[in-house]
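Honest question from a wet-lab person: if I give you the sequences of every part of a complex, can you actually get the arrangement of the whole thing, not just the pieces? Trying it with mine:
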Amino acid sequence: MDPTGLDGTNMARVRLIDVAELAGVSMKTVSNVVHNYPHVAPALREKVQAAIDQLGYRPNLTARRLATGKTGMIALAIPEIDHPYFSELSRHIAEEATRRGYRVIIEQTLSDPVVERAVLSDREAGLVDGVIFHPVRMGSLDIAKLDAATPLVLLGEAAMPVMTDHVMIDNVSAALDATRHLLARGCRRIAFLGVIAADITGSTNQRLLGYQQGLLEAGVELNPELVFTASEFTAEAGLRSVAKALERGVRFDGVVCRDDRFAIGALKTLHDSGRSVPGDVAVVGWDNTFLAAYTSPTLTSVAPRKTAIARAAFDLLEERIAGYRGVGRHMIVGHSLEVRESAPLAP
Amino acid sequence: MDPTGLDGTNMARVRLIDVAELAGVSMKTVSNVVHNYPHVAPALREKVQAAIDQLGYRPNLTARRLATGKTGMIALAIPEIDHPYFSELSRHIAEEATRRGYRVIIEQTLSDPVVERAVLSDREAGLVDGVIFHPVRMGSLDIAKLDAATPLVLLGEAAMPVMTDHVMIDNVSAALDATRHLLARGCRRIAFLGVIAADITGSTNQRLLGYQQGLLEAGVELNPELVFTASEFTAEAGLRSVAKALERGVRFDGVVCRDDRFAIGALKTLHDSGRSVPGDVAVVGWDNTFLAAYTSPTLTSVAPRKTAIARAAFDLLEERIAGYRGVGRHMIVGHSLEVRESAPLAP
DNA sequence: AAAGACGTTTCTAGCGCTGTACATTGACGG
DNA sequence: CCGTCAATGTACAGCGCTAGAAACGTCTTT
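Yes, you can. This is the full assembly:
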């Protein structure tokens, strides 16, 4: 390796000490200038700054981290980066992170329990100051067992260990809102899409609960045949699920979907089968991803306040980073129903 | 700070030396075990491993980085995380990264030149081993000027400095394919959506070029009125652009869209105005994001091979990381036309 | 039995930065 | 004229890990 960089292969990095020598001061003084420490004589500060500029010095963040013990990074662990809900959430998290001076490492778990476990183990590796994690397969117990020192905030409803901070929306009440909305339109045979056999996340159950509550309070009888099941969380599966129901001759005039992707699948089947939305069937989605605004018809959707989720998650995380060690806080973030064409306001 | 962790506030991290002491060996031996160095006596290895397990030791990655000079991280800088194309690309990059043992820091530039510049400066901060960057506002010159030591690979067509590696698809030929496809269906009045006034990226121009070539070779006259302009890169803007053309009475039987979002906007306007797709107008999108499969009708779309882009970018980046300092390589990645309902094969 | 040869383990100097402890200076009051 | 204090600077010991050099057996070889 040629530290002179003459051969262009290994331009030696400029270090603090190089700047110090050029400026004729100590490392600490340079460091003080870099950090805008107030008690540096103006003349010296100028001289040091000149040396920094001349050499093009940039502090080595890794070294800084080792010295300070802070990494300035947080990990965001989500099932899939390119799921619209998660990519939109990621964006809000990324923006909040920038605002608060953190960088974000994205970890894609693909809902793989092994990966989920690995993500949590990383907490201990000194890589990040904290982790925001949306678990799918790990339960409360699994998470509680890995009681690492690194702050952790959970998203979603899959697991809610007592000791861990948590941010979520009130799924029951949101599903209730969606169901009431359809009821107010006059729908009486309202379906729920969909239950998934292998679903370990609590979300679906809570949403189903809200849906049932809604029917109950309107005096509409629960009809098991109207609870559709799907094989997996994809638009395709939602499409098939609705198609099968239609084949079976199940009749319904409204659908609450646990997911925009299901809703998109539903819209497509309904459209392909010649039904009109919302004329024949009103459809409500969930997550209010940007897709909802561009389907035909546009999609009424339950809208979790993603910005608020990001902010709340960071609030909790930063308190943990600052040293809070108390019991887990469970934070409920607001939601609304974004009303569009697939289920407009009551006529 | 209480290193005993008795107060529960600052559980001391287990360090290499702690393990070494417990096992009664040197740090290096523990390190050898951790790294699976072959020449460690089985008995010792076992003893050390036991100590590691007992203490729950996990190496401090920051320290390792400082010692080795490798961070094992790469930065991915993209305009928007939640743009479907970029979120899908991110996923492929993330998976390729995992495969090759890297972690990914996501930087969202929001197409802000200041942020773009900052991202490139980070290259020098020793934070990452390399950067994969999809520039929008920075030109070749700007990028070339910041000749940092950290490896860089560019994506997209906005800037192509001679010295920098580059991965892209052949936009001209892809647009040509799309146009030919419509021509083969019998379309003769084919529109292009859309040109953006403030567009600094070369992509649109290249796509426009391919579109024009296609018309030319089919002997169809170019009609400036069929080149639609949009105010920004959103579905909404695409929608308005097509709506305005319809209002003006512009007639067309096909549209090549430079972007799936534009295509979605187009589909929506056409649908709302009572036109049938592909009956009255055939539509081709671009990027083949997952949206394309779930619109009604489904969307025929130019499909860059995102997996190949991710792989190529990493190939180039790893060569740079390994020490390659030659001129920039410009890698063309394949594409295809994913044919769906909005523009089916010729009847 | 001495000398190599080799496999195994220890020693230790960094990696670049931070922060504490300490030294120096000059201003100011008594 | 000395002591005190605040304002500035310097020196240097870590942060936890890596990796090359050196040391230490142990086993052959002569």
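Two things worth pointing out. Chain A has a mean pLDDT of 89. Residues 16-59 of chain A form a domain with the 434 Repressor (Amino-terminal Domain) fold (CATH 1.10.260.40).
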